[in-house]
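call fold target=ATP synthase subunit a
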Amino acid sequence: MSRAAIVLSGENPFPPSVEDFYLPSLFGGAWGTKFTLMVWLAVALIIVFMLTAYRNPKIVPTRMQWIAESIYGFTRNGIAEEVIGHKGVKFAPYLTSLLLFIAVTNIFAIVPGLQISPNSHIAFPIVLAICTYVLYLWIGVRKHGLGHYLKMSLVPPNVPWPMLFLLVPLEFAQTFILRPFTLALRLFANMFAGHVVLLVFTLGGFALLGANSWAIKPVSLVSWAMAIALTFFEALIALLQAYVFVLLTSSYLESSLADEH
């Protein structure tokens, strides 16, 4: 029985809770959840799209080739070069892959039959943040050396040495703890909140429809109208969060490549 039918019958409490984000296993194992299938579906869709778009590239691009080139060009020119500079071009493939993956998995939140984003579960944004975290640390250490990179990251220039007892722990927390944490948390919180809001208005319509008073039942239409309107807003938020994640990733990479603190 669907959640809507359960709410309509009055057998399940309303509103939805955090437990709705812990989906049951589809195949009996810990990894075979709906989230796992959606992640692999997103990977497959992106690979098929790119292979199809560039299967037979033309000077005058087809529509699919133009879309693929536009996405890559936007990421390379509008994010990588704009934030990192000329050196950012070599990171464009990673940033484009990251942008597409987050955008597709976020859009799943409004796709009928899926209706939830894997990024509304904290585990997936954490993995994405760790990938960025490892990359920008590796880039910084490779360019500057471990000792010099740590000094650049932790010791602000032209600061009286007594202040370092306060500033070094703050810089360490900001650079090595807060950056990956907030990167993951921002994506997770937005997709989590968006899904909860859509659930509240969608299931709220069924709860109002199942009310005992006939005067309350028509209000269910208002709740569903709000759910439809918020679905379009959620689509915008989904794409915006993909852009913000990649933009912050570029900013962190730029800080690792910079010669100054």
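return ok
The chain has a mean pLDDT of 82. The CA atoms of residues 128 and 184 lie 7 Å apart.
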